[in-house]
Structures
1.
Amino acid sequence: MYEGMYGSARGLGFFAILMTVIITPIAGIISIFIEAAILYIIYKILGGTGSYEGTVRFISYATAVLVLSWIPIVGWIAGIYGIYLYIVGGMHVHDVSMARSVIAVLLPTLLIILLMVIFMAWLFAFSGLSLFGFFSTGVIFL
């Protein structure tokens, strides 16, 4: 009679866990190949000579340290070490300088941040809101 806080959806718990266990590794593998394609193109633009297979290999090695990311302080250290492994791995696989490897590794992140800033500026420009939450025109266009 009483279905609890989650209603009748609580019976889907096992199914949700099962699907997560199946989908998460598949999505992780697919994301490694997509990330490798993006980095391979960036390294080629920067003059790299490595192969796509080598890019997939060093990304796989570098992301292995993320197994430790769930530990509070060790996770931060492992994340920084993972970025270092990306830089050094790309430097060796694609035979580029460390500066070019840093650019190749950090460029996708900087582009995403830039796109987020542009989107937020667009959102503020067309929403009628000022930066501090006050209504600039009294009308909100969402």
2.
Amino acid sequence: QINGSDERNAWERTISIRKGTGQYAKDFSTKNVPTVKKSNWRQQHEDFINAIRSAKQCTIAIKEGRPLPPPPPPSINPDYIQCPYCNRRFNETAAERHINFCKDQASRRVFNPAQKAAKLASRAQNKAQVNSKKEPTVTSAVGTLLQNRTMDSSKDRSAKAGASPESTSGIKVKKSPSKKD
């Protein structure tokens, strides 16, 4: 049971504790209480309902074979803070860190159009140099191997024209290389 005397005793205890610190009850007013943000549950609820409706429309369109409807527009969270440099949105603690970082990055960037055009031109020139690769040179050993392969393939074609019983059965016969004296 809580009655008036218990509440008074509790109050007197807090005053007696604060007397030693030099602070009294009226010093601890609502100034020190952190402000509670206004809840935006109604907007979140409406966004949720709209998302469900658009999902239903998509499933109906898929079943009927129609083209999909456009997605719902993204909702902007009013609790987020927009970065003035990159226009992205963050919560309070992340925004404090990000805005300082983005400010430093923006100061390092070059926004001079002449310098930007020069950079683009040098990039295009580098790409042109990379794309103009030289054809690989064929050494004499590689050249003879290629010639031998083409000759072997032409012999195989002429042998298939004769249609020997081995070739019709689908079994490939591996020929041993002949030695020349």
3.
Amino acid sequence: MAADEPVAEVLESPTERDRPAPPGPADAEPAPWASALANLDQARTYWLATVRPSGRPHSVPVLAVVVDGAAHFCANESSRKARNLAADPHCVLTASGESLDMVVEGAAVPVTDPTAVRGVAAAYAATYGWAPEERGGALWADGAPTAGPPPYRVFRVEPTTVLGFPTDDSTVPTRWRF
């Protein structure tokens, strides 16, 4: 998601230090970032949480794709999620991966560069069979019920912290700090 490799650490709260170790291999190391990114990329169900101007939370399902190591989603500018992000870009994107459930905390940054938008369009076509085209730094296509009508503004989630919770015994809960 960022050019630099994040700092990975086993997720542990101070109240858990006297409890038995979480499920996972004994003496497990934090999950590698490459594994987390692969889980985020192969997920098909994503939820985006934003904050309304009143301070109330707003959460909706979105179609997301990973391009150049970053999660991207799109929305019509008049949608509630886009209006929330215009007022406050902080967000949380969650996804269930094959071996990690992911929580990506960060900020949604608009992407308008035509080359970058075309890359996101190609990822949507490869991942979901939805083939939007880039026009004027936005995506245009029919059939995006969670994004509203076109045009769709593309957002890249710039993470500050990512949490990974294992769905099997292959690793332990991990936090990546950017």
